[in-house]
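Structure first, sequence second, as always.
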């Protein structure tokens, strides 16, 4: 693990072929502040069709399910590791929120392939190799104004360089920028067809001299 820590410290891409087997059994979860922020984002959007990549043990799913309960919506959450999914099911049951969640076990590139359109919130929280393919899979099914949050883009920037480059290209249909928070991540909004302002928004978000009107 030491070479990986060295690469992480210097902002370099990591060897996920070594990390994934180790992390697959780890109970990865949001901290409370990130969970509350996730809830407020979904709640403000009044999201009714929430998709999550990377259920883990269901901590983030609980925050999303709370928002779904308020909006009359549902969370479709996908997890690759069966043991984690089993724990997530139990955690959501204990929280009294199971009825607002549809659990999809397996590779998200397959489990999310046939879902209907109308996606208005996407929590993109899986391993880096899934982040962009799953977003590209869901993009045609996303409503204008749909929100995507990829917190791992802030935590592992080198491993999400391709993801960030793609989502910031206006022709791909998103307006996107990094959130100016400790571990905010890449915040993307599905733009109406023909809108091409993503680059401008990104520049404004990065520059301390540009103020939003």
């Amino acid at each position: 693990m030491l070479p990986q820590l060295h690469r992480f410290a210097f902002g370099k891409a990591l060897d996920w072929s070594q990390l994934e087997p180790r992390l697959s059994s780890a109970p990865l979860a949001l901290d409370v502040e990130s969970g509350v922020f996730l809830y407020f984002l979904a709640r403000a959007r009044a999201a009714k069709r929430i998709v999550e990549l990377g259920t883990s043990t269901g901590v983030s799913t609980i925050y999303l399910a709370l928002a779904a309960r308020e909006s009359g919506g549902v969370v479709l959450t996908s997890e690759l590791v069966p043991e984690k999914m089993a724990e997530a099911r139990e955690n959501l049951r204990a929280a009294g929120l199971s009825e607002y969640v549809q659990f999809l076990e397996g590779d998200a590139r397959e489990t999310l392939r046939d879902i209907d359109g109308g996606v208005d919130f996407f929590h993109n929280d899986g391993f880096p190799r899934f982040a962009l393919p799953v977003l590209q899979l869901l993009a045609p099914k996303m409503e204008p104004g749909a929100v995507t949050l990829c917190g791992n883009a802030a935590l592992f920037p080198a491993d999400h360089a391709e993801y960030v480059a793609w989502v910031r290209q206006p022709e791909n249909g998103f307006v996107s920028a990094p959130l100016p928070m400790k571990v905010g991540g890449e915040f993307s909004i599905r733009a109406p067809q023909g809108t091409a302002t993503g680059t401008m928004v990104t520049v404004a978000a990065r520059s301390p001299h540009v103020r939003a009107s």
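Margin note: The chain is about 40% helix and 20% strand.
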